[in-house]
Design goal:
alpha/beta; DprA; 11 strands; Rossmann fold; 9-stranded mixed β-sheet; 427 residues; two-stranded antiparallel ribbon; Arc Repressor Mutant, subunit A; DrpA_SLOG
Length: 427
């Protein structure tokens, strides 16, 4: 597994991956840095002559202290953690043999949406199995309670199937109930899924159906915790934000009022406004669903899943009203009418809002190099308008411009890596 010096330093300093499993005693100097602690060091690094984490390998402890203003205790802690590079190499080799890859915030393959939405709250290290390219595909988070009623089960199945039909990735937490139903339904319908785990990635990979889905390129498992970690309530609560941040839209199928991980995650998303939050609506919905709608969740009735405009268009239409338009209160519409006729007075608040809406459609065409004219014709817009959008996409790092002739392609296609493992040794 090829790991850059920057990533190697981050893994050694901020994860338990290199800690011996032979009962090594954790002392203050051997405890990895927490996310808040590392963010302080990272800011100091970026403003110093050292610049990046990899500099710890070629600068000496006196320089760390001088340029970063670290205490002697912090310097000793860094030195102790970096001394485990041999153990890290062994562990990385073991993980690679299991089909598990590792990325850090310093890697180009790190999910761009996590960085963009969570910023310094984005996890420093991620472990995964499957095609990392799926993490950049437009997806819908589907979340809900472990104990879900029959109507909720039916809604989840239909939602996941519609996602599969329209090429939307289903993103869930892999827990019993709504999460597992959404994942299984999407895969059964020929779709793809991303599962963000709060328990052991290694244990999950031992399940035959999971391995087959991962190897087929239909499923990605992702975790911010050590691949051998056990489930904790704290880790489940923490990973909720990653499920939301990886998605473009989120749908709450079933939630208890003011308790449980589903409620906490949805409330957090409403607070920080990461993505539009849709909530299953209807006659017999749980109290938690109704309260989330009252807090700002967008009602999603079962019949809206069958809107002739398609699921993606429905989510974009209502999501845009709630997130990027001047009339967020205008959410009533007649199901079954074309979206163009639902609210002719709706106008974008700013130009960048419109870009955010049309970009997924442009990005979908960039799996192969395309010219401005080809893209303009595909989306039925003026070439000048397409030029403006592509220019903005370049500024945001969302597109790669090729020359001779001038064409555009998704950066992901240039850096996409193949599946790292054949799962040798797993029964």
């Amino acid at each position: 597994m090829n790991i850059s010096p920057d990533s190697q330093a981050i893994i050694l300093l901020c994860s338990s991956l290199a800690i011996s499993r032979k009962g090594e005693k954790d002392e203050d100097e051997t405890i990895p840095f927490t996310l808040p602690e590392w963010n302080v060091i990272a800011r100091k690094l970026s403003g110093s002559v050292l610049k990046s984490p990899g500099a710890f390998f070629h600068a000496d402890p006196e320089q760390w202290q001088k340029y970063l203003g670290l205490s002697k205790k912090e310097v000793n802690r860094i030195a102790k953690l970096l001394s485990r590079s041999g153990q890290l190499a062994i562990e990385l080799e073991r993980l690679e043999s299991l089909g598990i890859w590792v990325v850090t915030r310093a890697d180009p393959l790190y999910p761009s949406r996590l960085k963009a939405l969570l910023k310094q709250r984005a996890p420093l290290v991620l472990f995964g199995a499957g095609d990392p390219g799926l993490l950049e595909v437009e997806g819908v988070a589907v979340v809900g309670a472990r104990d879900v009623d029959a109507e909720g089960v039916d809604f989840t199945n239909r939602l996941a199937q519609r996602c599969a039909e329209e090429g939307l990735i289903v993103i869930s937490g892999g827990a019993r109930g709504v999460d597992q139903i959404a994942q299984d339904s999407a895969l059964a319908a020929g779709g793809k899924a991303v599962t963000v785990l709060a328990d052991s990635l290694e244990a999950r990979l031992r399940q035959r159906k999971v391995r087959e889905a991962v190897l087929s390129g239909c499923l990605v498992l992702l975790s911010s915790y050590h691949p051998g970690a056990h489930f904790t309530v704290g880790s489940a609560m923490c990973r909720n934000k990653y499920i939301y941040a990886l998605s473009r839209y989120a749908v709450v199928v079933s939630a208890s009022f003011n308790k449980g991980g589903t409620w906490a995650g949805a409330a957090e998303n409403l607070r920080y406004k990461w993505v539009p939050l849709f909530v299953r609506d209807g006659e017999n919905i749980p109290e938690g669903n109704q309260r989330l709608i009252e807090k700002g969740g967008i009602p999603l009735k079962p019949q809206m899943l069958d809107d002739e405009s398609g699921l993606r268009a429905t989510l974009e239409f209502y999501g845009a009203k709630a997130f990027g338009y001047t009339r967020p209160d205008a959410c009533e519409a007649v199901v079954g009418e074309s979206l163009e006729k639902k609210d002719p007075d709706l106008q974008p608040a700013e130009e960048h809002d419109l870009f955010d809406i049309v970009w997924p459609y442009i990005e979908k065409e960039l799996d192969t190099p395309k010219t401005e004219q080809e893209l303009a014709e595909k989306l039925k817009v003026r070439r000048g308008q397409m030029q403006d959008w592509l220019k903005k996409a370049q500024e945001l790092g969302k597109v790669h411009k090729m020359t001779r002739p001038v064409r555009y392609i998704s950066p992901l296609q240039l850096k996409k890596s193949s599946q790292l493992s054949l799962f040798e040794g797993i029964n």
